[in-house]
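Researcher: I'm comparing several assemblies side by side, and this is the next one on my list. It has 1434 residues spread over two chains. Same procedure as the others: predict the full complex and return the structure.
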Amino acid sequence: MKDSQIKKVLLLGSGALKIGEAGEFDYSGSQALKALREEGVKTVLINPNIATVQTSEGVADEVYFLPVQPYFVERVIEKERPDGILLAFGGQTALNCGVELYQSGVLEKYNVKVLGTPVQAIMDTEDRELFVKKLDEIGVKTIKSEACETIEQARQAAKTLGYPVILRAAYALGGLGSGFCDNEEELDKLAEKAFAFSPQVLVEKSLKGWKEIEYEVVRDRYDNCITVCNMENFDPLGIHTGESIVIAPSQTLTNSEYHKLRALAIKIIRHIGIVGECNVQYAFDPQSEDYRVIEVNARLSRSSALASKATGYPLAFVAAKLGMGYGLFELKNSVTKTTSAFFEPALDYVVCKIPRWDLSKFHGVDKELGSSMKSVGEVMAIGRNFEEAIQKGLRMIGQGMHGFVENKELKINDIDAALREPTDKRIFVISKAMHQAQYTIDRIHELTKIDKWFLEKLKHIIDIDEQLKGQNINTVDSELLRSAKVYGFTDFQIARAMGLEQEFSNMHKALIVVRNRRKQLGIVPVVKQIDTLAAEYPAQTNYLYVTYSGVANDIQYENDRKSIIVLGSGAYRIGSSVEFDWCGVQALNTIRKEGWRSVMINYNPETVSTDYDMCDRLYFDELTFERVLDIIDMEQPYGVIVSTGGQIPNNLAVYLDEAGVRILGTQAQDIDGAEDRAKFSQMLNELGVNQPEWSALTSMEDIDRFVDRVGFPVLVRPSYVLSGAAMNVCSNRDELERFLQLAANVSEDHPVVVSKFIEHAKEIEMDAVAKDGEILAYAISEHIEFAGVHSGDATIQFPPQKLYVETVRRIKRISRQIAKALHINGPFNIQYMARENDILVIECNLRASRSFPFVSKVLKMNLIELATKVMLGLPVEKPSKNLFDLDYVGIKASQFSFNRLQKADPVLGVDMASTGEVGCIGDNTNSALLKAMLSVGHRIPKKTVLLSTGDAKQKAEMLDAARMLVNNGYEIYATDGTSKYLSDNDIENTLVHWPSDNAQPQALDLLHEHKIDMVVNIPKDLTSNELTNGYTIRRAAIDLNVPLITNARLAAAFISAFCTVPVDEIGIKAWSEYK
Amino acid sequence: MRMKDVTLVLDDGTQFKGKSFGYESPVAGEVVFNTAMMGYPESLTDPSYAGQMMVLTFPLVGNYGVPRFSMEESGLATFMESDRIYATALIVSDYSEQYSHWNACESLGDWLKREKVPGVTGIDTRALTKVLREHGVMMGRLVFEGMPDNVEKQDYDTINWVERVSCKDIIRYNEGAGKKVVLVDCGVKHNIIRCLVNRGVEVIRVPWNYDYTDMAFDGLFLANGPGDPDMCVDAVNVLKKQMSESRKPICGICMGNQLLAKAGGATIYKLKYGHRSHNQPVREVGTNRCYVTSQNHGYAVDASTLGNDWRELFVNMNDGSNEGIRHMTYPWFSSQFHPEACSGPVDTEFMFDRFIETL
């Protein structure tokens, strides 16, 4: 029964999206809040991530855009006095914060009850030693290492553990003296070496090549347990599960194996005392039924979000209800609505999760996959066979791949090595290897340890591909064509396999030929439901996927032209994440509210938009032209919205338009007019609007001539990109040539766009909604950093605090002109550059931009709702002017994940590098900035700051800030140029030396000795010596967890903020209190 | 090798076209669906599937091959649930010709061929399941390309399947080991015997209609089995006799639950499409204890017809159907689900402990 004492509950969110902690916690938090709301409980949410759905109006009763840190949470508790707190829905951030509050007695002091899993149980799973002890109590095996001090002890330990074993020298960094031993002879040899490094050697059982299996387990307070889903990693042990391709349910386990691990999982969570949801990870021997427990996560996790989407079982929702005191038997299965929530879903399909990496965005990053996470997002593909699911998935990750085959040839020097040492590309290396006779399945298995069942299935795809080659589309056997579709081939892959690409010299035309032919032959997909019970009970579910492996649709279409399809944003990646999920959800809400049928197509399991109760029909499927058109063929919608899902749907606009699909809002032709650089430029010229000088160039001579005219630095990039992939600023000829060699590989057919790079200019964003070319509502915001930092990485201030009135006036005027010229109907964003009052247009997107949720929430005006109404053709009122006049400030700051990306240079540039963002509101800039900076992991330095402040101009920019530091009692350490400059300006400082100078005091040593609390390191230029020194300092700061700022303007603003506003003067105000 | 076309023809005329991957011979049977995601070797050898064509809703089948068909010293099959495949045919969506498992010795297709059981792949088993769900289970037959469609028409409900699958002579397991349990074999799964033997009792397996009332034993166990319990009049009569003469503990599983209920005066009805899965939720009546159970039955006890001395022990949390009964005074109880699992979850194995405790 429900605990009636609990009337108000505090939920901790996870903050900004970062590697290892991403959108899945928006999804789980939103579900929990929904579950509590249903109970009539008042909810308070702390989460600075302003782009999330959970921080939207109507989800929680009060929202605090504050750091999820003990100090701030205590202040909120003090103010709100909640009865209960939920710690399991905001990832590790919320869990750690909750444990600290518990240990420091804050929860007890304010009489706040931890709902769900007790804190002691959380601590038992988080502390390695406690965890092993706890599982030992019930005889469950964990991964253990034995510390040995003699060779004899090591031999004994190895014998007990069983060969093969891993030997590690204790206290030796970097794996010195470590290795695998298959027998005692090898152990003797290695142990001798290891003891030379260290007096102690750790012997651990080697689980290399073991399977990795996970179970999602739920327990209520009556001790009833279920396992909602199990999952099997395609990649064997050794690769973090977040980095692995994962299949659900497991495919290579027998009944006895499956249920052995299931029973263990239940035994474990009973013993630990979980109330709610938890995840148990196993290593499983591929040659016996031996196992080890890797870890237990006593909270909702990435895997639980995946399991929810994979099965249709709303884990977070149920976990929240269990936290309120319910038993599982008191809850209903929310898909069937009639059967019990106490059951285990039966799947009649298979899902495949594939991580999305963005490693190419980082300079110098280590690409090998291992035990820590590097991926920034993931996709989930659903199919009725493995081949279909994985081919869908490989397309969904959106890195230009078309499936397992028919991709651009990968250049691999050493295939053996590339198979043995996994990188983000390994699956494609397998494809390449399978095309070569010497790489048999056995050989590939030997190198990768991937189960042969998976490899056989992949080989099946290769075999079909081989059969397709040389066939003629008009005469091909229809059974072969159908079989290709059943096993996940797109029209694109088929067209390419049959060589139609050359024949039509246009891939799009070629794939339409295939499409038409197969439709003629009656080869069309069917729609199936995800109903949790494999059709055993009738279900009214709207959770759907599309497959060729079937003869009948599960749903009957109304054919009433009342459906509106919203295209989602796909995998989270650098440049496109939760903000577009928010936009999609707002569009769906509006469509529904206005009496239309809302339909979503998306495939990202971390999102709220793929929660089946957010819309009337959810197609968890691909956003390819082919699949979207398949769905349109069946759904026969009134129209399609392409402007709320970022660049993926935006890029489909023209093709869909050609296919006769009605695009709602701004028309495809106008979208093209903004996307196509030449057309856009010409339009601006006609309007008399300035832009940085640019040219699309195809040869080096042309480029030279252009650069001679405009001068360095220049910005070099290909067209049609999001978040500046392969974009770079070059300040001299050397750099330009080096970069062009790289870029030429990426886009041989496309000209390179070179533009004049303007330094020391302000960057300004215009987010707006227009109807019939007339602007209805807008938000102008300014970057704190000067142009040159990607807008996705920049710190943004709204409303602007430091713009000339004239600048604002001009921006409004130009925006009006552009909106009119492009006949904008719906959301759009224009980026401007301003120096004095000279305004230049950088780019214009006729879709919602990354900053829409931020400005909407600060403005308290839902711009997407307004835009959706416009797109639906509904009458809208122009909001009154004084709505745009705010008495508070919003700051959006970026979250970086450099600590997860070994060796990457943590410096910002024109290419986006941040993985997430926060948005905080304050009574003034300083207070808002402080909240935002603390939210993304900065700390107010205690005593010492290390400054290296770049070139003369940047040094000057930092001068006041440096003086403020000294006046506030900080000690400044500075590298040579900076030190001299500061001394010349009478600012006290201590000179420290660069790593390349062999002199004391040494900057690097100070960092290692934890004598520096904050590093400001601003790259001066790109000379290689500077780079080496600067890089070493920056990287050391990241690796040693010392806050680092690499931009002079941001550093100055942050220093000014914490020197002006003491932390205890930061206002603890809920969103609703800013009026 | 090209696979032969096969058509599944249901009694209502619906047809599904697929490919043959097992033995090629036209057969007929009651078409039933099972939503378990693994455990095909156990299910196929479960005698309760006699006379039925098993449709698996989980599409990928055959992945881990088939383990060797070995017998242990105890006389029980190591990995299977009986001495052979009892299902009439296996119908799947995506048969995996290639298998991978350390414990496998042959492919599912080869095993089916060896045991002369047809297998069909390439069927939209979800669509087929929906037909069965809406219409109820029905008879169907397989028609093979190039082979005559001449299989004899059968009516599942009129056949005494228990008689066909029960042992003909008494078999003893764990002889001389303490307490003795008589096991009435209506089509027993080996894991039931194993669960008893592992608890240190001697198991005396007798044919379904054998009169054990004069035998020396400490407890009676009524096993699972195929078909309509109303066909098992002899078994119910023996049971009634036993219950009128003695208070010795009785426990039953599946068919055993139905026989005990009949002996206790209740009636049985046929479910529209049965429970065949690993995820059936049951609640112990009068408690907050719930269990995920493995099930395979097409008939159920009408709990409203139970005699005054009887109570429901478990109910199904999805459809409210009976999942077990108990006598108010005597140590007589049973479950409709399968506590011995194999295949399926093992959460209710405590039923055997409860039984052993009463001996």
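Model: For your comparison table: The first helix of chain B runs from residue 40 to 44.
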